[in-house]
Amino acid sequence: MNRLLDRCRVLSALSLMAAALASPLGAQQGGHAMQGGMYDGPTVLRAARLLDVDTGTMHADAVIVVEDGVITAVNPGNVPETMHDMDLGDVTLLPGFIDAHTHLGGEISASSFTAAVTMTEARGAYNAVLYGGRTVRAGFTTVRDFGRGVTVELGHAVERGDIVGPRVVPSRNSLGITGGHCDATGFSPGILEGGPEEGIADGPWEVVEAVRYQIKHGAKVIKTCATAGVLSMEGPVGAQQYTLEELTAMVEEAARHGIKVAAHAHGSDGIMAAVQAGVASIEHGSILTDEIMDLMIEKGTYLVPTTYLVDVIDMDALPPLVRGKAEEILPHARASIERAIERGVPIAFGTDAGVFPHGDNAGEFGVYVGMGMSELDALRTATIHAADLLGTADRGHLAEGMLADIIAVPGNPLDDIEVTKDVRFVMLGGRVIKHVMGGRDMHSMGH
User: Fold this and answer.
1) Distance separating the N- and C-terminal Cα atoms of the chain
2) How far apart are CA 221 and CA 427, in angstroms?
3) DSSP readout, 254-266?
4) 109 CB neighbour count, 10 Å cutoff
5) Residue 235: what are its φ and ψ, rounded to 5°?
6) pLDDT digits (tens, 9 = 90+) for 418-429
7) CB-based burial, 56-87: b 16+ in 10 Å, e otherwise
8) How deeply is 312 buried, as exposed, middle or buried, from its count of CB atoms within 10 A (0-12, 13-18, 19+)?
9) DSSP letter assigned to residue 353
10) pLDDT tens digits for 384-403?
11) How far is Cα of residue 62 from the mean position of the Cα atoms in its chain?
């Protein structure tokens, strides 16, 4: 009964936030009829440039035709006549970006470390809608979110068109050992104790039970804590927590349901065990050895670096224990990621947004380029590589038949990756979410 009531509260909160925050996608926009937030009939987008992220080709005088939420043509010989012909000007069209590591349910603050026992599910739902709106307007049209049940419901609301937010690949509750990084520690016995339903599982059979329960209730990816972490009150930051046997049971059970596993992992022992078990991605990957990188390359295991946060995390908001762990591990993380780029480890874009403000996700691109990655390869981490990691073949590049998740940035991102921080246009499934003209977002103003 308590879970049913919690679900009702979450749905109610999402509905209220939809009414408050939904972009003006009603019956009229700019004098043109719209159906369900999309123009009635084909929409033609024109721009000075379009980047083919697969080949690296920059096309001039680009044209994309969109209808019923999908791309029907790119640079066609004949452009259909339509009332909805939008010339976006001196911008570059790109696929909507994908962030493979977000936490839309909140943002870090001095109260974050008691939020587990003070923040309601309803508040988490409000947060998810607010931060989801900021994220999609920053050009991130899909996220893999490591939150709780609220982002399962957020994803459904976005799919229905009720809420302005990114498409969501949700994990629901993360899986971890009793007292580990994925367990809420530091409270008196009896407070917020969890079991497999909450993601706290010890031993292979409890792990299997936990996987099954998360999938039953909407998880499209399983997140686990293979090692200890920074933003928690347990012990050494890199210590291995799940055993190889437990991780293997987790990966094999998830695979039976067509679901991948993402492993939070800082220390080398836990990273190696997770890669050997067959996880799809290593989140953070702070201490990578040559042996681990060789195995990741061999198995095609993605590294999701989450490294921009090193520059922007609010250290003053962290309790002394947590701050000490951050100061210990973060320099190692930067060094490992730079070596991974040099070695050619598969990398998919991920930020850990929520550890820093949502909407600033594009800061991650500049870090990759600063570490030696080309601008094109940096863009690929958030498009074709992230789409491959998430198993979402219907997005990540601009081509006929792909979802009409399209963004535009000023200038040429191959010359200056920092333009990714200035997204001027966002379309999600054929719906215009953002359109900046003359320094104003004309869409949000209802024009």
Assistant:
1) 45
2) 25
3) HHHTT--EEEEE-
4) 10
5) -75, -145
6) 999 999 999 999
7) eebbeebbbbbbebbbbbbeeeeeeebebebe
8) exposed
9) B
10) 999 999 999 999 999 999 99
11) 28
As a whole number of angstroms, the distance between CA 194 and CA 32 comes to: 52
At residue 109, what are phi and psi to the nearest 5 degrees?
Answer: -155, 180
Closest CA to 97 of 310, 301, 361, 308: 361
Look-up: residue for tokens 């991974």?
Answer: 340
User: What gap in Å lies between CA 337 and CA 304, rounded to an integer?
Assistant: 9
Helix (H, G, I), strand (E, B) or coil at 183: coil
CB contact set of 312 (below 8 Å; sequence gap of 6+): 356, 360, 363
Radius of gyration (C-alpha) of the chain in whole angstroms: 21
Confirm if 99 and 361 have CB atoms less than 8 A apart. yes
Tokens encoding 256 = 């039976």
| SS3 label, residue 348 | coil
Q: Cβ neighbours of residue 340 under 8 Å, at least 6 residues apart? A: 285, 288, 293, 303, 305, 347
* Among candidate residues 309, 299, 308, 179, the one with its CA nearest the CA of residue 239: 179
Give this prediction's pTM. 0.90
Helix, strand, coil % in the chain, rounded to nearest 5: 35, 20, 40
Token duo for residue 446: 């209802």
Q: Is residue 445 packed enough to be buried (19+ CB in 10 Å), middle (13-18) or exposed (0-12)?
A: exposed
Q: Which two tokens stand for residue 50?
A: 């379009």
Q: In angstroms, rounded to a whole number, what is the distance separating the alpha carbons of residues 153 and 33?
A: 29
> For residues 420, 426, 429 and 433, what is the CA-based torsion angle, rounded to 10 degrees?
140
Q: What is the mean pLDDT of residues 234-243?
A: 85
Helix (H, G, I), strand (E, B) or coil at 282: strand
Distance CA 78, CA 183 (A): 58
The first and second tokens of residue 15, run together, are: 């509905």
Report yes or no: 140 and 98 within 8 Å, Cβ to Cβ: yes
Q: What is the pLDDT of residues 349-359, one digit of tens each?
A: 999 999 999 99
H or E element that contains 341: helix 320-343
SS3 state of residue 189 = coil
Inter-CA distances, 144 with 93, 278, 309, Å:
23, 19, 17
Is the sign of the CA dihedral 268, 273, 278, 282 positive or negative?
A: negative
